[in-house]
Amino acid sequence: MEKFEIHILGCGSALPTTRHQATSQVINLREKLFMIDCGEGTQVQLRRSRLKFSRLNHIFISHLHGDHCFGLIGLISTFGMLERTADLHIHCHADLQRLLTPQLEFFCQGMSYKVIFHPFNPGERQVIYDDRSVSVETIPLRHRLPTCGFLFREKPTPNHINREMIDFYQIPVWMMNRIKNGEDYVKEDGTVIPNDRLTFPSDPPRSYAYCSDTTYLPRIAEQVKGVDLLFHEATFAESEVVRARQTLHSTAREAAQIAKAAGVKRLLIGHYSARYEDETLLLKEAQEVFPETLLAFENQKLTL
User: Fold this and answer.
1) Which stretch of 16-25, 55-64, 169-178 has the lowest confidence by average pLDDT?
2) CB under 8 Å to 160, separation ≥6 — which residues?
3) Which of 13, 89, 99, 211 qualifies as a cystine partner to 149, CB 3.0-4.6 A?
4) CB atoms within 10 A of CB 128
5) Tens digit of each residue's pLDDT (9 = 90 or more) over 26-76
6) CA-angle at 126, arms to 87 and 42, nearest 5°
7) Is residue 205 packed enough to be buried (19+ CB in 10 Å), middle (13-18) or exposed (0-12)?
8) What SS3 class is residue 164?
9) By the 8 A CB rule, do 99 and 73 touch?
10) What confidence tens digit (pLDDT) does each residue in 245-300 have?
11) What is d(CA 34, CA 6) in angstroms, rounded to the nearest whole number?
12) 3-class SS at 209?
């Protein structure tokens, strides 16, 4: 099975603590790295993760609160010192390009690579990235600034060759890719060997949804229905539900309600308020609604 990993670089909220880093994650999908958000200190966490800087070419920014983007200029500068040559693509609200351009011109003159911005409207559901292995779709959220989550959907892989049957029918090597992609094999006498006799089905494509920061939004469930892993912010416990409403955040129980309604396989909660020194309270509240809930923590790796 091809690699599909989620690396948690930071899972704290806006107020810095000694226990958690600002928000950032990296998805490793078939050895291509995609970053979601880039809070302060992200590049240090990226070093600790032992992920290869050179394989990170796309960064997705959910919204323009500092704990989700203050690490960008430092990371961009470091890439320059590493003499990076590949373009770096940043997918974000249009305002981020306006804000970062003067900093790039001042701090990052003469870099050996280009920073390319891809603006999108966080309020619209749309595919903002697509290649042969994955598509990335925005999930409109509700927060104090225009905000969206991201839905990563793996593309189906070709069928697996049944080597025993290939040898039995003496099928030439030049037909392998065509058979992997679903073609039948026609022998010289016109006999058709159906594809399902020559291949095994590929593994089902996997999916990952990221939803932070947001108030409780039941409509999210429809878009993330059935995903393999849902990350949903759980800034507060249920006792702070009023505070959650005021700040347009969610409680752990509300995150679990989304997961249950969507029928996801697993829920990962994070973006913890600095008031909690022990997040097991949040885990317990979520698991009462959705048992397949996990707590996010720094340098955690989850495999789909």
Assistant:
1) 169-178
2) 180, 199, 200, 201, 202
3) 211
4) 19
5) 999 999 999 999 999 999 999 999 999 999 999 999 999 999 999 999 999
6) 45
7) middle
8) helix
9) no
10) 999 999 999 999 999 999 999 999 999 999 999 999 999 999 999 999 999 999 99
11) 10
12) strand
For tokens 């429809």, name the residue: 222
Cβ neighbour number for residue 155 with a 10 Å cutoff: 13
DSSP 103-152: HHHHH-TT-SS-EEEEE--TTS--EEEE-SSEEEEEEE--SSS--EEEEE
d(CA 191, CA 197): 13
Q: Which two tokens stand for residue 252?
A: 């752990």
Residue 198 has which token pair? 């020559």
Give the active site residue among 67, 131, 196, 213. 67
Q: Is 288 left (phi over 0), alpha (psi -120 to 50) or beta?
A: alpha
Structure tokens, 224: 């993330």
The length of the chain, given as a count of residues: 304
**Single-letter amino acid, residue 46:** L
Helix (H, G, I), strand (E, B) or coil at 31: coil
Per-residue pLDDT tens for 73-129? Answer: 999 999 999 999 999 999 999 999 999 999 999 999 899 999 999 999 999 999 999
Question: In one letter, which amino acid is 92?
Answer: C
Q: For residue 174, what are the contacts with CB-CB under 8 A and spacing of at least 6? A: none
pTM listed for this prediction: 0.92
